[in-house]
Amino acid sequence: GAGVSQSPSNKVTEKGKDVELRCDPISGHTALYWYRQSLGQGLEFLIYFQGNSAPDKSGLPSDRFSAERTGGSVSTLTIQRTQQEDSAVYLCASSLPAGPYNEQFFGPGTRLTVL
Amino acid sequence: AQTVTQSQPEMSVQEAETVTLSCTYDTSESDYYLFWYKQPPSRQMILVIRQEAYKQQNATENRFSVNFQKAAKSFSLKISDSQLGDAAMYFCAYRSPRVSGAGSYQLTFGKGTKLSVIP
Hints:
The structure holds two protein chains of two kinds.
Chain A: E1 5-7, E2 10-13, E3 19-24, E4 31-37, E5 43-50, E6 65-69, E7 75-79, E8 88-95, E9 105-106, E10 110-114
Parallel strand pairs in A: 2-10
Antiparallel strand pairs in A: 1-3, 3-7, 4-5, 4-8, 6-7, 8-9, 8-10
Chain B: E1 3-5, E2 10-14, E3 19-21, E4 24-26, E5 33-39, E6 46-52, E7 60-61, E8 64-69, E9 74-79, E10 88-95, E11 108-109, E12 113-118
């Protein structure tokens, strides 16, 4: 079956512009995670969705970052007024209903470059 | 908060040889889950192996095995009979069994080890 897909694959934007990154999880996966991977760093948790429950936004670095998940499926991560430090690879992952041993399946990521 | 440390930014191994990647973590929890992920140049993270802390037996998946030392909070990955396709970034990750925030089980990652395989 299809894996997690993300679009665009690469995004170059100018400082101060808004960007939207999209994630399409594996069908049937109710849990969805966004992570950020800055150069030379590990993955940093951003936000988590589980079904219709309120999202866990505890990892969002600032109020310029927001995300939504429509219909329990596709998710969009929005970064407003982008800054150069936002340049990173943004990875999305999905899993069956959240449990500590459930494998998270990752997408290929979106590489964001802020000029 | 839990932290994961990978002290080897880069490693290399000769094809067909064995290599061990190190990972240590810090936690006050007694039960948790540990993972090794592989990230090839395609950027897509792939689960290599996982270990439950309450299990004493080390996990094994084909050529991949772990050395889990709970008291030392160490979780190293051994790759046997290394192949060219093993070249990638390897990330060690920790997961708490408890929920945080609204109910997530987010992974806490180390900074990764870049593995090169020499033909």
